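User: Please fill in residues for this 334-position structure.
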């Protein structure tokens, strides 16, 4: 009786492709995770004046990096009220420069969240890094008030009582001058310089996340749109002419599926932009549909490269849909 030897080439090839993909992800994401804007803030309630009942928030934004300057790319606040000094284009100095961090003051209504979101950009020689950070201001109670000093009431000196033996002095006779004295014109106060209007914070909508799922019987396209995103539609067309629409709605995750079969190809397009065709590939655990059998050859290096190719297709779909989304974004002003 002859025993058939099991080949390790197929599982080793799959394991190698997984290790290479994981290393690539860690290489790309590790540097970016260390960079971030450092945000801190304190909020106190205003108890007097025209802004009584509102909150005065004092923000400070610093740079997490010691050797690299950063630039503020976006400033977002739920109240959409102006913040002094912390604006788009402002520079975040590196820690080694010993320069002060950005600081600003914001007046926020009582019914609005006291949050601040900063998107910063680092222009480095080998890579560009972008990071967004959100922080909430710490409530410190009522704002301090400046005490006013009372005005002292002057006391009236006592009137002297003339004595009977004291002669009354005769006032001296003065001769008026022949020419009136020259009068000095009053000094004029220059007009005050107008107070510059602080820049308006222009929040930008959130960005969607795209995903492609392949199962033994379905090819599914998904879009996760954040609550502050913009609604848009992507048209999906198969090689047989079947057309389906994937509508992205703010705050929801939507999906569209095609029944899988050999030769299925789907082309996404939106707003006149057409992406590369996505071909369905059966997963390895689908048996005869695409997973193969024991009589088939072991997975080779070329086949393992197809796994990485599938990841590239996912990236291409995300890029074209992201470009369409950026074209349709809407800007709000306070």
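Assistant: Residues filled in for all 334 positions:
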């Amino acid at each position: 009786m002859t025993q058939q030897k099991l080949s390790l080439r197929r599982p080793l090839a799959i394991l190698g492709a997984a290790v290479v993909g994981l290393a690539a992800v860690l290489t790309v994401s590790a540097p970016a995770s260390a960079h971030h804007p450092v945000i801190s803030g304190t909020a106190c309630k205003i108890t007097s004046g025209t802004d009584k009942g509102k909150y005065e928030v004092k923000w400070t934004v610093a740079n997490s990096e010691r050797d690299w300057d950063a630039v503020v790319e976006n400033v977002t606040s739920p109240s959409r009220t102006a913040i002094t000094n912390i604006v788009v284009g402002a520079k975040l100095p590196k820690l080694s420069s010993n320069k002060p961090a950005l600081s600003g003051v914001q007046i926020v209504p009582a019914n609005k969240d006291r949050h601040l979101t900063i998107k910063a950009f680092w222009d480095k020689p080998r890579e560009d890094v972008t990071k967004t950070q959100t922080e909430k201001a710490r409530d410190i109670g009522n704002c301090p008030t400046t005490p006013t000093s009372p005005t002292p009431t002057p006391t009236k000196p006592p009137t002297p009582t003339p004595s009977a033996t004291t002669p009354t002095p005769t006032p001296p006779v003065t001769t008026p001058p022949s020419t009136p004295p020259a009068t000095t014109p009053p000094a004029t106060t220059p007009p005050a310089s107008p107070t510059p209007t602080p820049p308006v914070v222009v929040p930008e909508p959130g960005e969607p996340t795209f995903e492609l799922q392949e199962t033994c019987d379905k090819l599914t396209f998904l879009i996760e749109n954040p609550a502050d995103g913009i609604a848009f539609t992507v048209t999906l067309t198969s090689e047989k002419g079947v057309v389906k629409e994937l509508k992205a709605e703010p705050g929801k995750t939507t999906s569209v599926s095609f029944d899988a079969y050999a030769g299925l190809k789907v082309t996404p397009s939106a707003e006149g932009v057409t992406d590369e065709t996505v071909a369905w590939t059966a997963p390895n655990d689908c048996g005869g549909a695409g997973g193969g059998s024991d009589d088939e050859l072991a997975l080779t290096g070329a086949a393992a490269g197809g796994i990485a190719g599938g990841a590239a297709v996912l990236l291409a779909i995300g890029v074209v849909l992201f470009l369409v989304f950026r074209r349709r974004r809407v800007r709000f002003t306070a």
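For context: The helical segments are 9-34, 301-328.
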